[in-house]
Amino acid sequence: MKGNSHQFNFQFNKEKEMAEFRKWFLVLAVVALLTSGAVSANAQPFSCAASAVPPLIRAEGLAELVGDIVLQCTGTSPGGTANFRVFFSQTVVTSRLLSSGPPVVTEAVLIRDEAPSGSQVTSAPPYTATTNVYLGQWSSATPWAVDWLGVPLPAPGSPGIYRIRNVRVDATALPASTIPVPLQAFVSISAVTSIPVIPNQVTVAYVTPGLSVSVTRRSYKQCLSPTAQGAASVTFTELFASAFRLAPSILPNPGAPYSVPGGVNFTEHGFAPNPTPSVPLDQTGIATQATQLIVELTGVPGGVSSVSFSTTTTGGLAVTPTSGTITISGGSGSVTFTVTATNTTGTESLTVDLTPTTLPSSGSVLIAGNFAPLSTTATPLATPVPRFRRVYPAVEGMTFGTCRTLLLFPFVTNVAGWDTGIAISNTSSDPIGTPAQAAACRLHYYGTPTVAAQTTPVISNGEQLAFTLSSGGGVVGTTKTCAATGTLQCAAPGFQGYIIAVCDFQFAHAFAFVSDLGASRVAHGYLALVIPDRTPRADGPHGSSNGHGEQLGN
Question: Cα 406 vs. chain centroid, distance in angstroms?
Fold first, then answer.
């Protein structure tokens, strides 16, 4: 029994020791796991998470500001410096040029750790040790990219925030669609070790037209006052709120929101550091002008030296023109309107009414409206910022023509003892306020023998020209006759056929009287027919403009 008891105790103690071992083994395993996790956390690879808030930008713009790109970096930094690049596959970078270099320095900035306003230190490459606002560089070899080379990384184990601002792009390179087109930016960071950017592609803007332009056409008759005939007009309509923007003066020390990383100001300006860096870096983020709108006139006929204008705005918009009238030189002229007040919470419009101060006898004017200043340069420039392509074409906005009435005398004769008398009255004098007009008529003869066209004396308002085919005549009650320089006019002896009289005044009426000589036996009279003036020709017997003049429908 004693031996069995000893064996039992030995077995019991052995099992107890094994239980204690299992207990401590589990504890040690947990400790090892926790320790391993801590070591793994401390050794987490350094990476940056990219995000952006994309604004709407104008499809007409050559230097449009895209949204900020924010890089939130975590993990174990390798220390030292890194090279940052933002690049595009859809367009090129056009940020404002600060220095032509080398290197070519632009206003595009990389801001470290959301450097607060008042403590920002701005530097062009190579960067100083105290820099926290890094200016990017651009190269014509890679026009679609902007680089920041040698930017310090956070200390090992420290997080870091990098914000990219003031990147401008050529938005005209993307399709212009009323459905906004996304613009993608790619971000890369290169250092002694690989630094992932997740995601490395972000949407930084949506491209869509910012402007709609419409032209209202006006036809002018030379014999009437331009102001009495109304105005041609061009209307600019903003297609999204904040397409029209201001550019207030923010130098020398910009305050909020211009110098606040992430601040939104709804102007043409971007981020402007505070304190302001030295020249030429002091232009960082600063636009050269507010949004501008231009009216262009081309193909203006000779005789028009200037065009007056008036403006109407809606939605809180206010503008200032570059001049009081549009001076015409070489057949063209323009006026530019700078936005001086705008409402960023709604859309606005500007209508420009245009009236020529003098009227030519024929021709037309093409009118175009666009954002301004106009340019074709899609590379960084010192000025102007912003700038725009000429997107909206010129259309016919004004036409000019003489006032005229076309009169048909369907049968006239001066043969075999017959003669025809004709009376043409200028009835533009009346009791209903018709503008008084005065001009000559051109008589076009169709029949035999051939007779060249003849010009009558000027028939003033309220006057009548009376003549016969056999001997001519003159303006009744005046000394104006059809005889000039010894050549008989308003007469065609021996002619038989018809006559079309083109009178360069409105409201001409006429009567013809055919009889034997002396009207002793047979006579017949009729009213001349008024031919509708429907063709656009400036001269000849068949009119100069469409839908003008009195038309009796016969």
Answer: 43
In 3D space, the residue among 275, 23, 247 whose CA is nearest the CA of residue 130 turns out to be 275
Domain with residue 179: its CATH number is 2.60.40
Rounded Cα gap, residues 64 and 154, in angstroms = 31
Q: Looking at this protein, which amino acid is placed at residue 255?
A: G
Using alpha carbons only, what angle is made at residue 204 by residues 200 and 209, rounded to the nearest 5 degrees?
145
DSSP secondary structure of 182-236? EEEEEEEEESSSEE-EESSEEEEEEEE--EEEEEE-EEEETTS-GGGG--EEEEE
91 and 144 Cβ atoms separated by less than 8 Å? yes
Structural domain of 409: 405-531
Distance separating alpha carbons of residues 386 and 65, to the nearest angstrom: 9
Q: What is the pLDDT of residues 315-355, one digit of tens each?
A: 999 999 999 999 999 999 999 999 999 999 999 999 999 99
- Answer whether 547's CB lies under 8 Å from 534's CB: yes
b (16+ CB within 10 A) / e for 473-510: bbbeeeebbbeeeeeebbbbeebbbebbbbbbbbbbbb
The residue whose two tokens read 């080379």 is: 149
- Contact between 428 and 461 under an 8 Å Cβ cutoff? The reply is yes
* Distance, CA of 371 to CA of 389 (rounded, Å): 8
Do the domain assignments include residue 274? no
Rounded mean pLDDT, 92-99? 98
Residue 241, classified by CB atoms within 10 Å of its CB into exposed (0-12), middle (13-18) or buried (19+), is: middle
For residue 347, the SS3 value is coil
Q: Give the Cα separation of 365 and 356 in Å (integer).
A: 10
Q: Is residue 257 part of a domain?
A: no
Q: Is residue 254 in a domain?
A: no
Going by C-alpha positions, the residue among 519, 526, 415 that lies closest to residue 469 is: 415
One domain, residues 94 and 243: no
pLDDT at residue 551 above 70? no
Mean pLDDT over 106-128 rounds to 97
How many domains does the chain divide into?
A: 4
Q: In whole angstroms, how far apart are CA 378 and each of 20, 92, 147, 197, 239?
A: 78, 7, 18, 28, 23
Residue that the structure tokens 């005939």 belong to: 229
